[in-house]
């Protein structure tokens, strides 16, 4: 992918936008871009530099993302809406072509890493509530004030950040080594040429050798003494507007990542803001249990889509005939009575029972959590609560006594919440 039209290869210390930004290290990557930590010499702050592939279709997608991000930043001058802020954008010319670059505020690890770090056991419900509130504030802002549908909401696209002032807590700001993966393996599933990766890593190692030495020594101690994040305001922000759209300007019929996809997308029955609410409910479930809510699979005799619809109905009850046969794709899955064509016997396992039986929730926790989630998972998109209505839900303000929750103790303290790299010096 590091060829004409593809990614731009970056070396530690590379300057961008006339020398304003200096590349520090790679943060992540996706299908269309690589994301680097960079130092902003004008503001003396760290930023995330998203460098798009150069081919025409990627450039077009980047311009669309920049337009959306600009609208988001414009309406949120105080940066309090739980959505990532665009700082700057520009074009960078490299050997592989012209790459649009987005400069974003620097955030921390994704919720996917949080879930993995917690070994898929689920977080304390109190932490789940805090994270849910942030996501809902972000969605309410996007939907109601900006008219934007995110359309790819998933744990990977929600990043943690910390509100602790590093100047007041220099100890915590030494927590960089947390970026090392606990279980190995690639997190983003992106494709990166191995050789270039290795080369870049060697260069990066040389450039920051002295810093890593100190990081390692600080990190171990810091981790040992920071056993709990109790009382710390864990917060997060919605990122990745590469697929965002407006209700009357939709580009794609098939949106969202499979597991977070709403039924109306599978049926092709038209969609609006409420597709994000469906994904939000899937994320909340995953945070609380450590498992994805729906993991459909194709098998002999039926498709992944039909399995997905079956899983939804096993958890949430049968879809009404009107909804089942109402989409452009309905005929592929449902007969005229509104029954699935190839999957006949559904095993109903309602959400509150699932939470008790499989995830060992107390009866009260399960009932309350299911009461919060189920309306968001209404098969009728227009009946789902809006983010604004959801923010009023009493579940968000409940407190579970943490004594009952020692089992699924959150490891959130072991994550990079965004300020970890503050000590890296500008590499010139
Ligand atoms: P894509 O559209 O290619 O998926 P994203 O915007 O999701 O691109 O960014 C890819 C990855 O880069 C994210 O999953 C995350 O790991 C990292 N990343 C993106 N934005 C930031 C940011 N503002 N701060 C820190 N890391 C970021
Ligand atoms: Mg992404």
Summarize, please:
Residues 21-396 form the Protein kinase domain. The chain is an alpha+beta fold and 428 residues long.
What's the N-to-C terminus distance? 27 Å
Overall number of strands: 8
Number of helical regions: 13
Secondary-structure content class = alpha+beta
What are the defining features of this structure?
binds adenosine-5'-diphosphate; single chain; binds magnesium ion; 6-stranded antiparallel sheet; globular; alpha+beta; 8 strands; 33% helix; disordered C terminus; 428 residues; two-stranded antiparallel sheet
Describe the overall structure:
With about 425 residues, the chain is α+β, with helices and mostly antiparallel strands. The protein has 13 helices and 8 strands. Helix content is about 35%, strand content about 15%. A 6-stranded antiparallel beta sheet has the order 1-2-3-4-6-5, covered by helices on one side. A hairpin with a 3-residue loop joins β2 and β3. α11 (about 350-355) runs antiparallel to α12 (about 365-375). It is globular. The structure holds adenosine-5'-diphosphate and magnesium ion. The site of adenosine-5'-diphosphate (ADP) has 23 residues, from β2, β3, β4 and β6.
């Amino acid at each position: 992918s590091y060829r004409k039209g593809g990614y731009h290869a970056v070396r530690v210390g590379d300057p961008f936008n006339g020398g304003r930004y200096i590349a520090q290290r790679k943060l992540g990557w996706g299908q269309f871009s690589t994301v680097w930590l960079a130092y902003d010499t004008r503001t003396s702050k760290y930023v995330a530099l998203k460098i798009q592939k150069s081919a025409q279709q990627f450039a077009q997608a980047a311009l669309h993302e920049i337009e959306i991000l600009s609208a988001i930043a414009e309406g949120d001058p105080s940066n309090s809406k739980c959505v990532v802020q665009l700082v700057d954008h520009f074009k960078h010319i490299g050997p592989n072509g012209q790459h649009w670059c987005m400069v974003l505020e620097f955030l921390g690890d994704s919720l996917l890493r949080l879930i993995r770090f917690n070994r898929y056991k689920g977080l304390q419900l109190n932490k789940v509530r805090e994270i849910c509130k942030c996501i809902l504030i972000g969605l309410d802002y996007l939907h109601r004030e900006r008219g934007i549908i995110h359309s790819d909401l998933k744990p990977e696209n929600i990043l943690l950040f910390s509100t602790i002032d590093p100047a007041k807590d220099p100890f915590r700001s030494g927590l960089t080594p947390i970026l090392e993966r606990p279980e190995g393996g690639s997190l983003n599933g992106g494709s990166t040429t191995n050789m270039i990766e290795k080369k870049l890593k060697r260069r990066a190692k040389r450039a920051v050798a002295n810093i890593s030495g100190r990081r390692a020594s600080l990190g171990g101690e810091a981790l040992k003494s920071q056993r709990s994040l109790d009382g710390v305001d864990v917060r997060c922000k919605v990122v990745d507007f590469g697929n965002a759209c407006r209700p009357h300007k939709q580009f794609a019929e098939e949106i969202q990542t499979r597991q977070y996809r709403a039924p109306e997308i599978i049926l092709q029955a038209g969609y609006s803001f409420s597709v994000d609410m469906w994904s939000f409910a899937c994320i909340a479930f995953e945070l609380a249990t450590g498992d994805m809510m729906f993991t459909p699979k194709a098998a002999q005799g039926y498709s992944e889509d039909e399995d997905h619809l079956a899983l939804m109905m096993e958890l949430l009850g049968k879809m009404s005939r009107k909804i089942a046969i109402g989409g452009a794709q309905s005929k592929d899955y449902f007969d005229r009575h509104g029954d699935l064509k190839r999957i006949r016997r559904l095993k109903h396992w309602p959400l509150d029972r699932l939470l008790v039986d499989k995830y060992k929730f107390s009866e009260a926790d399960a009932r309350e959590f299911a009461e919060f989630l189920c309306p968001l998972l209404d098969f009728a998109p227009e009946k789902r609560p809006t983010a604004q209505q959801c923010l009023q839900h009493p579940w968000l303000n409940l407190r579970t006594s943490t004594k009952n929750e020692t089992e699924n103790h959150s490891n959130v303290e072991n994550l990079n919440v965004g300020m970890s790299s503050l000590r890296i010096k500008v590499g010139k």
